[in-house]
Amino acid sequence: MMRRFHKMHGLGNDFVIFDARQDPLQMDEGRARALADRKTGIGCDQLILLEPSSTAQVRMRIFNADGSEVEACGNAARCVAVLEGGETRIETRGGTISGSAGNDEAKVDMGVPVFAWNEIPLAYPMDTFAMPVGWEELQSPIAVNVGNPHLIFFVADAEAVDLARLGPEIERDPLFPQRINVNIASLEDGAVRLRVWERGAGLTQACGTGACATAVAAIRKRIAQTPVEVRLPGGTLTIDWTPGSSIRMHGPARHVFSGAIDVEAFV
Question: What's the whole-number mean pLDDT along residues 102-128?
Fold first, then answer.
């Protein structure tokens, strides 16, 4: 059966979006992984499934390229906000996101970050603001949950870290029972330079929740002031946060093309 889809991206972090609100679509790990394959499927970092919601305008389910379903995705939230147009409330496994969109960009409220060890979650208690752990030159990270779990390392030069090698090792460390997103950040002319190893997707051009988590960590460390300009390989996001409040993210979201595919052929 042919199903229409949208291909969108936020700063190069790309998505295949199926709207299943009127016509349900079965999605599981294997099908999501097959559709996300860049050689034999459509190709994307994350597959997005839109379903009916009883609490918001739409429910957004997020499947990483490896087929795993995750809680939140900031770049996808901006894309869905642009797709819906105007003001939008989006239900996710990580909480409800509100957004407003126009002219290929969106502002989204990502909710309030949490910091307790069991909210990240970690395998055992520790100080999440100065974690007594490290991997080679990456030491004493900060952990933040912004709807999904993030680990942030501040280094002298984010570009110098071999994230392609260290990222998968850290992501799957037993310390992180739900795995972890790995953020490598450095200060650059008053802004933050960021590279992200995204769990289930690997190195990405951009990660919206990673930008949010890193900006929160930088503000808490008092090495940056809100709003924070976060520069990723795919472009720049602006993150506004004050302690105790929601994180607000502003950035582009682009529609690339629409198409149709026989979903039943992917198992």
Answer: 96
Burial of 71 (0-12, 13-18, 19+ CB in 10 A): middle
| Active-site hit among 44, 73, 79, 212 | 73
Residue among 44, 79, 207, 212 flagged as catalytic: 207
For the record, the structure tokens of 129 come out as: 């603001």
Tally Cβ neighbours within 10 Å of residue 158: 21
CA distances from 28 to 25, 48, 57, 126, 209 (A): 10, 12, 23, 35, 23
Please, what's the largest Cα pairwise distance for the chain?
A: 54
* Active-site annotation holds for 207: yes
Burial 184-218 (b: 16+ CB within 10 A, else e): bbbeeeebbbbbbbbbbbbbbbbbbbbbbbbbbbb
- What b-and-e string marks burial along 88-109, b requiring 16 or more CB atoms within 10 Å of the CB? bbbbbebebbbbebeeebbbbb
Tokens representing 225 are 């002031």
Class of domain 2-110: alpha beta
**Domain topology for 134-249:** Diaminopimelate Epimerase; Chain A, domain 1 (3.10.310)
The two three-digit tokens of residue 178, written as one number: 């739900």
Contacts of 210 (CB under 8 A, 6+ apart): 74, 150, 181, 183, 194, 196, 198
Intervals of CATH 3.10.310.10 along the chain: 2-110, 134-249
Assigned token pair, 158: 């984010």
Q: How far is CA 124 from CA 43, 140, 179, in A?
A: 37, 16, 14
Give tens-digit pLDDT for 62-79: 999 999 999 999 999 999
The answer to whether the predicted template modeling score (pTM) of the entire model surpasses 0.90 is yes
Told to judge if 79 belongs to the known catalytic residues of this protein, a careful annotator would answer: no
